[in-house]
Amino acid sequence: MMLIRARQPEDLDGCVAVLRRVYATTGYPSGWPRDPARWLSPADQVAAWVAEDDGLLAGHIALVQGVRTECLLRAAGRDASELGGIARLFVDPAAMRRGLARALLAAAVGHARARGLQPVLDVVDDDEAAIALYEASGWKLAGITTATWVTPAGIAPTLRCYVASPAPDISLADPS
């Protein structure tokens, strides 16, 4: 059974343990953070969620406000304060392919839209699994840019910038 819920302070140790397994398997994030719990809670974070799979912590996502990536600002046509950035999305390798990443993504996007924020994200150009998830979820490629950070090898990776598709209009037609 899958459960998506708001992250609580007591979840951080479990999130770090899952992140360590993800890093060992996939190399995400590009470099192991000095303080992983702090990395999971960026200063501009407005909310974070965890996924549970059969009662075990199995994934994480955060939403930040104030994205300043130029290609996302241009594509969204909005001020940085109006952008809700999807961040720190990962799923335990043992729980992949069960819809957890998609459910976490939906929670963050819904929260961003409820706050009046345009959901945006960037992803390293060689992360084929993440790119496939975003594109299958309707995200639109907004551009390609070079990261402002470097990997432990000193390389600034290429990033793909995505903007969420507009929310579907669910208004009902007048039956008359």
Compact summary:
This protein is of the alpha+beta class. It has helices spanning 12-26, 36-39, 70-76, 100-114, 128-136, and strands spanning 2-6, 45-53, 56-65, 83-91, 118-124, 140-146, 158-163.
Structure characteristics:
disordered C terminus; 7 strands; alpha+beta; 176 residues; Aminopeptidase; 28% helix
List the helices and strands and how they pair.
Blueprint: E1 2-6, H1 12-26, H2 36-39, E2 45-53, E3 56-65, H3 70-76, E4 83-91, H4 100-114, E5 118-124, H5 128-136, E6 140-146, E7 158-163
Parallel strand pairs: 4-5
Antiparallel strand pairs: 1-2, 2-3, 3-4, 5-7, 6-7
Explain what this protein looks like in three dimensions.
This protein has helices at residues 12-26, 36-39, 70-76, 100-114, 128-136; strands spanning 2-6, 45-53, 56-65, 83-91, 118-124, 140-146, 158-163. It contains 5 helices and 7 strands; from the N terminus they run βααββαβαβαββ. Helix content is 28%, strand content 30%. It is of the alpha+beta class and 176 residues long. The chain has a domain at 2-118: Aminopeptidase (3-Layer(aba) Sandwich), CATH 3.40.630.30. The chain is globular, with a radius of gyration of 16 Å.
